[in-house]
């Protein structure tokens, strides 16, 4: 079996051969410094293995569960979830979509197993206020409600913290309003704790400004997920990687009910 290396060992490789479960993806990446989103990062690797181990899809409902990913980059997590049976909306900035994401998705659809979900690609700029979004300009584009929201390797600058969690909050609220279910979609954020001050600031922003509860996934669950994925890295190769589960608090849920009554 082809060995999977940590992302920082393969930045120089323009086309990665990347095994995931029973698929082999061919992922183009750029390491030209123009954008953080055009290369593979550790967070996408760890999040994909964790979700594969803990969120297995069971074909028991009328429709497939729907996932939106913020900052899809080269498309690994989107392809992984599609391989697991989820319908995925992969989003990123225009430069990332046009340079790597769209082509990687189209190139690898044929590598997905039978029973895979669909993948759609959409530009989503977090700096654009949610009230200016449009989900109706293209009826073929997947929109809310989403059953799961994910993001990895997206907390690296103070400037993007509030826009990121504003976007996550808006997608969660939209999913609640447009779904008969009263349960908010879980949000999984995978980050690398390079700068503890920045990481703590981001988590505090999610909790105190946007009303999410925070639960860190135990380290042993990440180890188990990697082992099941056939990965045997040294500890130093992925030190600092954390996965957090975010859920809207009861206070925000009650506000949602109040908003609906007023409408």
What does this structure look like?
- 39% of the residues are buried.
- The chain has a single domain, classed as Rossmann fold (3-Layer(aba) Sandwich).
- It has helices at residues 42-54, 76-83, 94-108, 161-178, 196-209, 219-228, 250-262; strands spanning 15-20, 23-28, 66-70, 87-92, 119-123, 148-152, 187-192, 212-216, 241-248.
- Strands 5-4-3-6-7-9-8 form a 7-stranded mixed sheet, with helices on both faces. Strands 1-2 form a two-stranded antiparallel sheet.
- By secondary structure, it is α/β, with parallel strands linked by helices.
- It is globular, with a radius of gyration of 18 Å.
- Helix 1 (42-54) packs parallel to helix 2 and helix 1 crosses helix 6 (219-228).
- The longest helix is centred in the middle third of the chain and has 18 residues, at 161-178.
- Helices cover 35% and strands 20% of the residues.
- The model has no long low-confidence stretch (mean pLDDT 90).
- Helix 4 (161-178) links the parallel strand 6 and strand 7.
- GO terms for molecular function: S-adenosylmethionine-dependent methyltransferase activity.
- InterPro entries: Methyltransf_16, SAM-dependent_MTases_sf.
- Pfam families: Methyltransf_16.
- One of its GO terms (cellular component) is cytoplasm.
């Amino acid at each position: 079996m082809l060995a999977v290396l940590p992302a920082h060992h393969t930045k120089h490789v323009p086309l990665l051969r990347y095994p995931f479960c029973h698929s082999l993806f061919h992922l183009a990446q750029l390491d030209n410094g123009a954008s953080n989103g055009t290369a593979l990062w550790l967070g996408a690797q760890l999040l994909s293995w964790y979700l594969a181990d803990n969120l297995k899809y069971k074909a028991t409902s009328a429709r497939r569960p729907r996932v939106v990913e913020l900052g899809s980059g080269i498309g690994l997590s989107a392809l992984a979830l599609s391989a697991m049976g989820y319908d995925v909306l992969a989003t990123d900035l225009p430069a990332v979509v046009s340079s790597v994401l769209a082509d990687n998705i189209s190139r690898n659809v044929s590598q997905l197993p039978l029973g895979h979900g669909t993948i759609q690609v959409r530009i989503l700029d977090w700096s654009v206020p949610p009230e200016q979004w449009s989900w109706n300009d293209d009826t073929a584009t997947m929109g809310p409600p989403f059953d799961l929201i994910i993001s990895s390797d997206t907390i690296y600058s103070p400037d993007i913290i509030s826009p990121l969690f504003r976007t996550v909050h808006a997608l969660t609220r939209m999913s609640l309003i447009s779904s008969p279910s009263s349960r908010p979609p879980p949000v999984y954020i995978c980050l690398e704790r390079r700068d503890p001050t920045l990481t703590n600031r981001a988590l505090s922003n999610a909790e105190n400004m946007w009303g999410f509860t925070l639960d860190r996934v135990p380290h042993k669950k990440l180890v188990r997920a990697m082992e099941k994925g056939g990965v045997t890295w040294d500890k130093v190769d992925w030190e600092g990687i954390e996965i957090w589960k975010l859920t809207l608090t009861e206070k925000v849920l009650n506000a949602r009910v109040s908003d609906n009554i007023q409408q």
